[in-house]
Design goal:
Number of strands: 5
Strand order of the largest sheet: 1-2-3-5-4
Helix content: 10-25%
Number of helices: 1
Shape: globular
Radius of gyration: 14 Å
Largest sheet: 5 strands, mixed
Structural class: alpha+beta
Order of helices and strands: EEEEEH
């Protein structure tokens, strides 16, 4: 499936429009626009959580992490994302939260 968007916790959302209530699967370490293969390990009432098995189509925003511990220690969740894409994603998060709480920016 194609990755739809990034959430505020740096997991990415894969949305299934054809499923009831647009089911969402959260997957760490993927970038919006990528096509990925995942394995669901937990189903909740309104979403699922999955592990990334394979990136089939890589985003132009994917880069090699500078930190050798990226992906293992949890301290640098976005090292695989270019700095420009990180800025776009973080700006979008702020705008979405302002809109959600009806705060004008």
């Amino acid at each position: 499936r194609k990755v739809d968007q990034n959430d505020q916790h740096d997991d990415d959302a894969i949305r299934y429009e054809e499923a009831p209530n647009q089911w969402v699967v959260f997957v760490p370490s993927v970038i919006p626009g990528e096509t990925v293969r995942v394995r669901v390990f937990r189903n909740k009432k309104r979403y699922s959580e999955a592990d990334l098995l394979e990136v089939i189509d890589t985003s132009e925003d994917r880069v090699d992490p500078l930190c050798p511990l990226a992906g293992t220690c949890g301290g640098c969740q976005l090292q695989h994302v270019s700095i420009d894409a990180q800025r776009r994603m973080k700006t979008q998060h702020v705008q979405d939260n302002l809109k959600q709480y009806k705060i004008e920016n």
